[in-house]
Amino acid sequence: MPETLLWAPRAWVAGSWHDAVLLRVDAQGCWAEVTPGVALPPATATVLAGPVLPGLVNAHSHAFQRAFAGLAERRESETDDFWSWRDRMYGVALRITPEQLHAVAAQLYVELLRGGYTQVCEFHYLQHAEDGQPYADPAAMSWALADAAADAGIGLTVLPVLYERAGFNQPELRHDQRRFRTTAAEVHALQRSVMAARRPFVNAGVAIHSLRAASAASIAALAQSIGDDEMPIHIHVAEQTQEVDDCVNVTGARPIEWLCGALRPDARWQLVHATHATAAEIDAVAESGAGIVLCPSTEANLGDGLTDLPRWLASGVPMSVGSDSQVSRNWAEELRWLEYGQRLLRRERNVSAAPRQGEPSTAARLLNAALAGGARAAGQAPWGLVKGARADALVLPPQAPGLLGVAPSRALDAWVFATDAPQPHAVYVAGRQVVDQGRHVDEARIARRFSEALSAL
């Protein structure tokens, strides 16, 4: 692509607002220049309509669950919890084809772009055909995701998942989990296949579904197979209290405690949810260098519980956010839920702010943490409005009701906490505009295919 010049009246550079920022995109779709204080835009520059933020990484997504969002909000029996939701969700997982996954994921990725995400990490465990047999190409479902990302114009990190058993004391998968079965060797082979394809803006790591779904021997085999290769390694951990209890009964240790002691995670690792974590476990994660991925809208929807966010932040553990089950597809909503959950629990305000550290803005502290943590979770460095990073940007609508009349220095606070369903005016990925005036450039065609897929499902 030709080099492009953009000029923003204000932009979020190095963790704070800067005025009059010139942004130059090189031929590879990366930032070649990010220069604040350029009072007059060059004649060849596109003048952006409002304040500019970096795009955010969605660090945890199950794309196929977009087909299920909103369809589990009724109680059909006397009890309803994560496990009953999971059983109903499997109904979609058992039916969806690669073509339908392509259609569903493309719609999701359009919505994620409109919600301010420009990269998505797919925790991808839906691998086989409906009868549980491998496709002729074992990566068929991965290519469906990659094709969907290309349609939408979003960056993608594919994380094929090690998934081999139904529980700590259930060495085989249940029949309704037959599409998820993988070995450590198969997971690494899928990761290598995705990387070898060299698709634009697509990379890959690996994932372990959970300690309950993979044996210690298989997790160790996967870790040995990838060795010191630089790639993200994700795992669900300590999401539910039943999982914690089962882990203690079998191993004698809590999930995060066991993980840090037996597997010794490093900076490549991302602990997804980490909801039920003790102070000692948080300290152990901090010492390891691993990060966490929080999914507050899904964790609220499923009744998971609230993690100790203040201690995670104080410990310096890298933190990112994800859309997970797709009940929300907007990062500002996730940050709002992160903070509001703590306010309700502690009956305090601005729990996440750190004025003694020079961070009085709750929104700024959470955004900066999510930007840095998300880049690590996706294996994307550098990230943000910095030279060498992919040229992703969000242009906020200056006339949005939540921003109207707000002092420029408080725009981020108002965007996260006072704007209903905040959607950027424009979104750029690798210097290419994919959202204009709040609309995706191909949303009508993608929405039509999505509707057809849902009707069939």
Outline of the structure:
By secondary structure, the protein is of the alpha/beta class. It is built from 14 helices and 18 strands. Helix content is 36%, strand content 19%.
Provide structural commentary:
The chain has 457 residues and is of the alpha/beta class. It has two domains: 4-54 and 384-444, Roll (Urease, subunit C, domain 1), CATH 2.30.40; 56-377, TIM Barrel (Alpha-Beta Barrel). 36% of the residues lie in helices and 19% in strands. The chain contains 14 helices and 18 strands. The chain has helices at residues 82-93, 98-114, 140-152, 184-197, 216-226, 241-251, 255-263, 279-288, 296-301, 309-315, 331-346, 362-377, 411-417, 443-456; strands spanning 4-13, 16-25, 31-35, 46-47, 52-53, 56-61, 117-124, 155-162, 202-204, 206-208, 233-237, 269-273, 291-294, 319-321, 393-395, 426-429, 432-436, 439-440. The strands form three sheets. Strands 6, 7, 8, 9, 10, 11, 12, 13 and 14 form a nine-stranded parallel β-sheet that branches. It has a five-stranded antiparallel β-sheet with strand order 5-15-16-17-18, with helices on one face. It has a four-stranded mixed β-sheet with strand order 3-2-1-4, with no helix packed on it. It starts with a strand and ends with a helix. The mean pLDDT is 97.
